[in-house]
Amino acid sequence: MTAALDTEGWSGSALRLTGLTKRFAGQLALDGVDLTLEPGQVRGLVGENGAGKSTLIKLLAGIYTPDAGTIEVAGRELHPGSDRSGLAFVHQDLGLVDELTVGENLAFTSGFPRAAGLIDWRRVWSSAQAAYERMSLDAPAPRTLVGRLSAAEKALLGIVRALAKDASVAVLDEPTASLPAPDVAYLIDALRRLKESGTAILYVTHRLQELYEIADSVTVLRGGRKVAEGPMGDYGVDRLVEAMLGRPVASVPVTEETTRGDDVVLVVDRLVVRDAPPVSFTVGAGEIVGVVGLRGAGQEAIGRAVAGAEPSTTASLVLNGVDVGRSRGVGGRMRHGIALLPADRQRESTFPGLSLVENLFPGPRNRSGGGGLLAVAAEQERALAAITSYDVRPPRPALPIDQLSGGNQQKVCVARVLGQAQRLVVLEEPTAGVDVGSKLEIHNFVRAAAESGTGVLVVSSDVEEITQLCTRVLVVVNGAITAEATGEAITDENLIVLASSAPVAAPADGATAMKGK
Ligand SMILES: Nc1ncnc2c1ncn2[C@@H]1O[C@H](COP(=O)(O)OP(=O)(O)OP(=O)(O)O)[C@@H](O)[C@H]1O
């Protein structure tokens, strides 16, 4: 513990916020919020998109200065410029440097060990290994470039890096947003140990189920205000969701079988990506096909290769009867009607600095007819229609995309990809960072796209999403498609079992082993 935030002898709250208020251009993002967190306690912080969660975290981190209110860590009030090393943050944007190794990224926070004035690289690598081992997590090779890690591996690295510091309060902003279920369980286990050691944890998530496993209490924000708070035991899911949205949410619809006869949109024959075994599969018109696998199984690479975002070879990749396998890159595939929604919102999916409307219709190809005032007006009209139907808040087409909350940015990206009326859409983590209400809405838009005949490939680490949305699921183990589940076989448990198994010996009912595919 650093001297400035020494908690030694402190028996009060680990964190105390009083009347915390933040305004953006006259709009109240956070309105007089009080919150306390005791040592060894985990408090869930939930709220729909735009509720003010990220703003609260950025105030804690000192990125924003409050307009009113105070922040105390272990009894000491923080001011702009105060030492904040008693707080450890894991943000949605992990702030990792792709061009550097795992070990270097960790050493950036913990410091580069030196011997005789030079960087002691052996210790850089061994400390990286040790940081993972302290949390009982499997470490990637410390010399791996972070850019080569999967989204899930990056998330774990972000968590390991933040928690490697000796902090009394850990602030986790959707730590599991891109983690497959077994990794989530792993992580929650590690967090329990951290909590037992006396660390206080503020846990922001849209995956409410996790709160029942780890949180002691919960605080609900809506429109920047605290609208509910109490022990987890007092808040069943329905009550929690109602507090978040200010209305009860309808029960979750399950996708009906939407495949239309033998009308096949995509036929992939022996696709080879990243040295994995060849995979072959089809996607029907109107079909929503899930692709799942454990962390590092290679499921993302398959979706990205189909969309041209990952180099690959194929015997053929036939889209509506035409072999488009030779067209390269995302642009090449897009010209044939394949669109990709990448998982990495910050780097690949949004165009920072550009407006909401420019993010909806990037590039002349997607614009309403060549330019000119009429086209601009038509574009505005289309933008407003998309903003309204996707309930993007605030509904201002000229607003820079960076000023929207994460979930609202995601809605804009989904609207863009689905609005392009493609033959096939590849959706990576389509609802990461999206609140429960908007998640259902996005799922309905995906279903509507499928109903209009688009083939949909969903690559998601959110197993619940896959079971709700998909009519067929391909399971990837070690880069190969080892099983296919349809109908009743699409359950959380079954998918996790199939994804955790080496090539399946005896498939569950409705699941087909696909060895050798
Ligand atoms: N830099 C900014 N400039 C202007 N408005 C902002 C800025 N950052 C956030 N806002 C607004 O403040 C409100 C709260 O946003 P915030 O990002 O805190 O929500 P959130 O609860 O974290 O949402 P999500 O779950 O989508 O991440 C929103 O209305 C948002 O548009």
UniProtKB/TrEMBL annotation:
CDD domains: ABC_Carb_Monos_I, ABC_Carb_Monos_II. Pfam families: ABC_tran. The keyword Signal does not apply. Keywords: ATP-binding, Nucleotide-binding, Repeat, Transport. Residues 15-248, 259-503 form the ABC transporter domain. One of its GO terms (molecular function) is ATP hydrolysis activity. InterPro entries: AAA+_ATPase, ABC_carbohydrate_import_ATPase, ABC_transporter-like_ATP-bd, ABC_transporter-like_CS, P-loop_NTPase. This is Sugar ABC transporter ATP-binding protein. It comes from Nocardioides acrostichi. The lineage of its organism: Bacteria, Bacillati, Actinomycetota, Actinomycetes, Propionibacteriales.
